[in-house]
Write a structure and sequence with these properties.
heterodimer; A: 325 residues; alpha/beta; Rossmann fold; five-stranded parallel beta sheet; elongated; B: 257 residues; nine-stranded mixed beta sheet; 13 strands; 28% strand; binds flavin-adenine dinucleotide; binds adenosine monophosphate
Chain lengths: 325, 257
């Protein structure tokens, strides 16, 4: 085992994701603790050019292959398994994303590497990998350890500011040709389906009133819509509201929905699960209304009201209208 | 014949306060109320939709932890063909590597060509069950799936995998396979308590036992509750007071017109 820390580079449509820089930011802190190098793993169809942006790493290892161009995690997994086997890093960081979630568990079993998921913080202490994890939808913090390592970590979005992983450095860039046969990949890419054009583009709104499962049923939506109208805002939502088909998928904020940064994000009856927070945490002003004082949304909100939305929302709509009048 | 297996797991109901064991390294489980992992319920719904379309046989399987019988009877009431409870030496809170190995053992004696799991659960400290299971079984896996079609011959599946920003990838994979379900094609059906009670009287849960050595690769040092509301300034008072304060904050920031 080497003492190196490896980071999987994620890119979509030719752009590095914020998650990549977040992982590099963590890697920058952890690699010296481990006593090794920070190595970025860059896999894709035509990705050599992206290496320039990976200045935070000491080394970039890149693999180019036609079969790595599409969203087929199995192809990534086969290449990574080969690479990690050969290179044997102390710690490998993967993003909790559509790609990373389809890799970590498989690599853990295939390479017999312990893994920790939902990581918010990572460190190497006396040779052990120590992670602080956000479990139970953000309601418990678990400090877990892989004694000695090596190991894998699935890191939550927002675990580190992306800027910490942006750097001008000039890493050594090396091409690697792992000995795996991608013809054996069983999953086949057929195409990408873009979201249907929405009635409103929630990523462009200055004010969002966002509604969660706390609204209880579809018939209650007008209560929240009225507030949105009063504020000149659009209605967005958490995932369950979309899964229930009360609002179209274009209104969903979060991991599998949109990332929004409005001037005001007013969260109503939303608990603040990590997958939701990922899509709204950078809003200028976050105000939350939730009847449960323990709801994790109050950890990201600037202002909060522990209150029944059915009482406060109509009063707020009225107050906004009165002010306008 | 399409044989679908849905492994189901229970997790603490977050509506209740989580309790931490005096050891400080585990949850206190005595008074915990359990519910089915929300995404497993989506996996079950997807299985039932496929059953309706392809006359598939659907089995749910679960390790005997928490009060899993209730969940299994609920699945029977919803129309699954078989419910299996697995007992064994895995303790009250097995990790997912252990659970996956137990399931592998049981699946060895169970006909299956499609395994549907929820893509994750809120307690997946050591990774997601579906992908771990797929690797132990050496089956192809796709996670974050929100649409499943099976071809006529039952030899392959075409699935929609969610990518960021509402984009979906259409992927095809041969069966048998494991899928991590993010959302069923329609909201999970509701079954009234009376039907669950009826299932308890008329249906049976099969029992099997399985062996699994522990994992012990990762060690929990400490579990604590996050300091809640650390960042937020809380607004107090009546609903009118709260409304007025919010209006004031928005006005100060020039957000109100
Ligand atoms: C891979 C993956 C991707 C995901 N992607 C997303 C995503 O893009 N977006 C997303 O949002 N989620 C996503 N999720 C789901 C996420 O984990 C949560 O399940 C979801 O965000 C919960 O939504 P919620 O807060 O509306 O519901 P809940 O967690 O059920 O919260 C409802 C809240 O309403 C409050 N409430 C109830 N009644 C009232 C009342 N009368 N007044 C005030 N408050 C009340 C409750 O206290 C509670 O806090 C994803 C999950 C996975 C596994
Ligand atoms: N990290 C990734 N996660 C998911 N899909 C990816 C990833 N990287 C590349 N892709 C897919 O590959 C396509 C081409 O990526 P790119 O080579 O970055 O233009 C993208 O549009 C995605 O469909």
């Amino acid at each position: 085992m080497s003492q190196d820390v490896f980071v999987l580079v994620e890119h979509l449509k030719g752009q590095l994701t914020d998650g990549t820089f977040e992982l590099l930011g963590i890697g920058r802190e952890v690699a010296p603790q481990a006593g090794g190098r920070l190595v970025a793993l860059l896999l894709g169809r035509d990705v050599r050019g992206l290496a320039e942006q990976l200045g935070a790493a000491d080394v970039v290892l890149y693999v180019e292959d036609e079969r790595l161009g599409d969203s087929v995690p199995e192809a990534y997994r086969r290449v990574l398994a080969g690479l990690l086997q050969e290179q044997s890093p102390k710690l490998t960081l993967l993003p909790t994303s559509s790609l990373g979630m389809d890799l970590a568990g498989a690599l853990s079993v295939e390479l017999n590497l312990p893994m920790i998921a939902f990581c918010k913080q990572l460190a190497v202490q006396d040779g052990s990998i120590v992670a602080t994890c956000e479990l139970y939808g953000g309601r418990a913090v678990v400090e877990a350890e892989i004694p000695e390592g090596p190991g894998l970590a699935l890191v939550l979005p927002g675990a580190c500011p992306a800027d910490k992983g942006r750097s001008e450095g000039a890493p050594a860039v090396e091409e690697v040709k792992p000995s795996v046969d991608l013809a054996e990949v069983r999953v086949r890419f057929k195409g990408l389906i873009e979201p249907p054009p929405g009635d409103v583009d929630i990523t462009r709104q200055e004010i969002l009133v966002s509604v969660g499962r706390g609204v209880q049923r579809e018939e209650n939506l007008p209560i929240v819509q009225e507030l949105a109208d009063a504020l000149g805002a659009a209605l967005s939502s958490s995932r369950p509201v979309v899964d229930q088909q009360w609002l179209p998928p274009t209104r969903q904020v979060g991991k599998s929905g949109m990332t929004v940064k409005p001037r005001l994000y007013l969260a109503v009856g939303i608990s603040g699960a990590p997958e939701h927070v990922e899509g709204m945490r950078d809003s200028d002003l976050i105000v939350a209304i939730n009847s449960d004082a323990r709801a994790p949304i109050f950890n990201v909100a600037h202002y909060g009201a522990v209150a029944d939305l059915f009482e406060v929302v109509p009063k707020l709509a009225e107050a906004v209208k009165n002010r306008g009048a | 014949m399409l044989d679908i297996v849905v492994p189901i797991k229970q997790v603490p109901d977050l509506v209740e306060e989580l309790e931490i064991d005096p050891s400080g390294t585990a949850l206190g489980l005595e008074r915990t109320r359990f519910v089915v992992n929300e995404l497993d319920d989506h996996a079950l719904e997807q299985a039932l939709l496929l059953k309706e379309k392809h006359q598939a046989q659907v089995s749910v399987i679960a390790l005997d932890v928490g009060d899993v019988e209730e969940t299994l009877f609920m699945a029977l009431a919803k129309g699954v063909d078989q419910a299996i409870k697995i007992s064994g030496d895995f303790g009250p809170a097995p990790d997912n590597h252990t659970t996956a190995r137990v399931l592998k053992d049981v699946l060895g004696g169970l006909s299956h060509n499609l395994i549907l799991t929820g893509v994750q659960a809120i307690d997946d400290l050591d990774g997601q069950l579906g992908i771990l299971l797929s690797s132990y079984l050496d089956l192809p896996y796709v996670g974050l799936v929100s649409g499943v079609q099976i071809d006529e011959g039952g030899s392959k599946a075409t699935v929609l995998k969610e990518l960021p920003g509402g984009v979906k990838a259409e992927l095809e994979l041969p069966l048998p396979a494991v899928l991590g379900i993010q959302a069923a094609e329609q909201p999970p059906r509701y079954v009234p308590v009376s039907r669950v009670r009826q299932a308890m009287r008329t249906a049976t849960i099969e029992e099997r036992s399985a062996a699994a050595e522990g994992n012990g690769h990762i060690r929990v040092r400490r579990i604590s509750k996050p300091q809640v509301g650390a960042g937020a300034e809380l607004l107090e008072g009546s609903s009118e007071d709260i409304a007025e304060q919010i209006v004031g904050i928005l006005a100060d920031r020039g957000i109100l017109r």
